Amino acid sequence: MASTWARADAAFPVRVTRSFWERMRADDPNDPLALQALPHPSELLADPDDLVDPVGDAARSPLPWIVRKHPDRVLFLTTKRCHLHCRYCFRRDHHPSDALDPSAAEWEAALRYIEASGAQELILSGGDPLMLRDERLFEVIDRCRASIPVLRVHTRAPITAPWRVTSELVAGLAARGPVWVLVHVNHPRELSPEVDQALARFVNAGLPVLNQAVLLKGVNDDVEALVALSRALVRRRVFPYYLHHPDKAAGNAHLRVSVERGLELHRALGERVSGVALPRYVWDQPDGSGKVDLLKTVDLE
To answer: Which pLDDT value is given to residue 294?
Structure first.
């Protein structure tokens, strides 16, 4: 395990928060939380289907830290830093020596691009935008608010680092609405009292909260886990927005499921939960053209 950890850490640094660690059963190799956060020997093996850029970001990046896949949306990669490094991450292709944040010139160029983009929605992503200080985050929103009607903050921090969701952060986002918060929960055991409190702070402040899950082998490729997750989210007033088919990122082959299995699970989920609790099953295409609904289906294999 020590060798696996060291080699995996050298390729993609291992980062786990104390909060998430306390929810894991770290001594169980099949624990659905540990599988997401701890190195696995299989991630050191190359797979013929591995892709360096599995969602096609590079082809749709008009300048550093910006991704533009749709005319009405622009995505700003505010940082490469995260509180926890998910082992299936599709943006794991940076080396620890790479710059983890935009330079001052890159930051300014990105904001100028956003202001002139004509987009209807600005998506703050990363990494995790909640790795930024509140002041830095609010600077982006304030700077772009006049030109972009709707802001989205895509973050896993409420789940991995719930202490980051302070009353000051929530009040600042609520005052700058409309701001939508998209979180990332894959398994119902990720939800803890501290996570519940973080999510409730957003919802109680009038900030819509949606969830994006990733379908992962051994984690949630089971209809009971998916039903429990959807129901738990709805009880917390979080809409189960997307269930992502896993991207073919290097190191995550052992966590991938087939499209056929995913469609089978999604159909079974649809028979168990209401429409408000049923996420869309989507795949983010490697050519950078964006997500497709797998119920309408495409040939991926």
So the answer is: 94
* Separation CA 54–CA 48 (nearest Å): 13
Q: Is the dihedral of CA 291, 295, 298, 299 positive or negative?
A: positive
Domains and CATH numbers, the chain: 2-293 (3.20.20.70)
Kindly give, in sequence order, each residue whose CB lies less than 8 Å from that of residue 118, ignoring residues fewer than 6 positions away: 71, 147
Q: List pLDDT tens digits, range 89-136.
A: 988 765 555 789 999 999 999 999 999 999 999 999 999 999 999 999
> Is pTM beyond 0.90 here?
yes
What is the structure's pLDDT at 1? Answer: 56
**218-260, pLDDT tens digit by residue?**
999 999 999 999 999 999 999 999 999 999 999 999 999 999 9
Single-letter amino acid code for the residue at 28: D
Alpha carbon distance 288, 298 (integer Å): 15
